[in-house]
Write a structure and sequence with these properties.
The structure is a homodimer of 349-residue chains.
Chain A (H helix, E strand, L loop, with lengths): L13 H4 L4 H9 L17 E3 L5 E11 L10 H18 L3 E11 L5 H18 L2 E9 L6 E11 L14 E5 L4 H10 L2 H4 L5 H12 L8 H7 L2 E5 L3 H12 L2 E5 L7 H8 L5 H5 L6 E6 L4 H10 L4 E8 L4 E4 L19
Parallel strand pairs in A: 3-4, 8-11
Antiparallel strand pairs in A: 2-5, 3-5, 6-9, 6-10, 7-9, 8-10
Helix pairs in contact in A: 3-4, 5-7, 8-12
Chain lengths: 349, 349
């Protein structure tokens, strides 16, 4: 792939900002991230090549992030890098896939300098270590006036025919979720710095916790074996617990009841609820959680709980699937909770 | 992955332009492109899954395209789609990989409407049919003020350990190239419509031919078996014949002599050379050719020529590799041709 030189005279002054050739840029900042990745060939060829076991299949997922849409252009480069990888690993984790490698396409605005690239690579490196995945290839190009746009395609493996689908839930299955829900939505409110959020009665550590949940999501990758063994369906929570649960329902041709009071919330979030600053609906529809929703057959519940505990992943039973087509989120008294929307749709808002 | 609702109030008026939800948009325009693609699951899950034969390995390549850089924002949607897929299939073809599927990440500006999406999907469909590849997944998001940015990750298969690398050339190997070189660079000049190009002594069919070579590159996918059987190294010509040949040289630790007069040029290009309107150097350094450069051992030359003919791919012997580290492009008299640059570097220009 190449650029239209003639079409972009504005690139002529690029040299002043970034004297690196594409070759040098890749060698300096990205090649170290491909160290030891089988088939990456040190990013020296036009393609990577993977072998997978004959009893395995490849799981592939793609997520793109655009500055000003999925993150703020002035977020730390290391945080942007972490998030781009985390949101993709989140899909692998929910499919019970073992992370293998990822490909990164990067469209860099002129304003990006070497310091930014260095920190970006450090963020990728930290995320790679956390998630057990390595860089296998990609493409680096310019988008002169921005926005910075990243696209990651992540690869993982599962035993043949064993990818955990979102359409496999059965009536009677219980609905589980990992971690805590809604922290990231609160972290985003803190990040945007509206006057409301700045006056929240939280201490600095609590603020940092929520911000970090937004900036550095950490999908529960170690739940893989438990999902593979016991889940009839799973997906990650990215657009909001309510909308993602409704998607699992409609993919599986089922309905579900969710007990809102059973949805796990963090201590800072609980504190804001108790102070009546936010409602539970903010947490259930906020999105960016990167936790996992899983349908677990009743008979497998005990084993799933035990395997999740062994993997050190907190899980909570929040509901059950039914033969109808309705998703109901119920409060403590069994009354349907009023939600303004179920969650986020990229195109409708 | 989700968007930061709070961070982009400008999306509120998006509804007027594109009342489709992301779900509907995918169902209407992209799901048909995944019809019959194994593991794509009708784009209904968070990931795709592929099985490959136990005697095969997966080849993966990524190329990103940005409006105003790699194509013009007002190019036809169908042409943009074709090119995004073609430049990726070009890498698969050069690695002797059999196309399997591709993942598409699309960041759409607000200005894109349903008509554009419909034509874009038609362009993808045409390219899929031409190259024998199908859509397996991806991500569709908004980049409100543009530019339109696309990233494709394409997957193919080769027999285990048989991906044709760019570093495998040996001293004495001959250098071959497919098709004709430089047409796309001329097509780009016609596309930008400078006064020079508009006065070129070409008829309408010749202009269309060159433009089409720029807008709708057609990598020689059927050369796969011939490359697999005979090539010691290969890569696609994307940044310019001269620079790409120099990259094959340095990856292989060799030098090469290229006989400029042996480089195949089209009839319209030849006509412009004869009229002394362009020089051969324009063609050799222009880029965007999406042809294949291959190193062929002397002993395999006859068989390679015969297999290429059987695949209906025109090839030309343009040079040979030597033990030194110098790439020389020589004219008819054996004198080094003066080239202003070898080709295109995304970051240096």
């Amino acid at each position: 792939m190449r650029c239209n030189t003639q079409a972009m005279p504005q690139q002529d002054d690029k040299e002043r900002h970034s004297p690196l050739s594409e070759h040098d840029l890749i060698a300096r900042y990205f090649r170290p991230l491909a160290d030891g990745v089988p088939g990456a060939i040190g990013l020296l060829d036009d393609a990577a090549s993977f072998s997978i076991g004959s009893d395995e299949e490849l799981v592939v997922t793609t997520d793109a992030l655009v500055a000003g849409v999925h993150f703020f252009a002035d977020d730390l480069a290391a945080d942007i890098a972490w998030k781009a990888l985390a949101v993709n690993v989140s899909d692998l984790a929910a499919k019970a896939a073992c992370p293998l490698a990822y490909s990164l396409a990067l469209a860099l605005p002129r304003s990006v300098d070497e310091e930014w690239l260095k920190e970006f690579a450090q963020g990728l490196d930290a995320a790679q270590t956390a998630f057990g995945i390595g860089l296998s290839g990609g493409d680096t190009t310019v988008s002169p006036d921005g926005p910075l746009t990243l696209s990651v395609t992540a690869f993982g493996t599962v035993p043949n025919q064993r990818m955990v689908r979102r359409n496999g839930a059965k009536a009677g299955d219980t609905l589980y979720v990992t971690g805590t829900i809604g922290d990231s939505a609160l972290g985003l409110k803190l990040r945007t710095g509206g006057s409301d959020a700045s006056s929240w009665p939280l201490d600095e550590a609590q603020r940092q916790f929520l911000l970090n949940r937004y900036l550095r999501p950490a999908p529960p990758v170690t739940l893989r074996a438990a999902l593979l063994a016991h889940a009839s369906a799973a997906m990650d929570v990215s657009d909001g617990l309510a909308i993602d649960a409704s998607r699992m329902c409609s993919a599986s041709g089922l309905g579900a009841r969710i007990d809102a009071s059973a949805v796990p919330v963090s201590q800072p979030a609980l504190q804001l609820i108790k102070a009546e600053i936010i409602g539970l609906d903010t947490l259930l529809t906020g999105g960016d959680d990167y936790e996992i929703l899983a349908a677990i057959p009743l008979a497998a519940e005990a084993a799933f709980r035990s395997d999740a505990a062994a993997a050190n992943i907190p899980i909570a039973r929040i509901g059950q699937f039914f033969q109808d087509n309705e998703l109901k989120v119920l409060d403590k008294k069994g009354k349907p909770l009023r939600l303004n929307s179920l969650g986020y749709d990229h195109f409708r808002r």
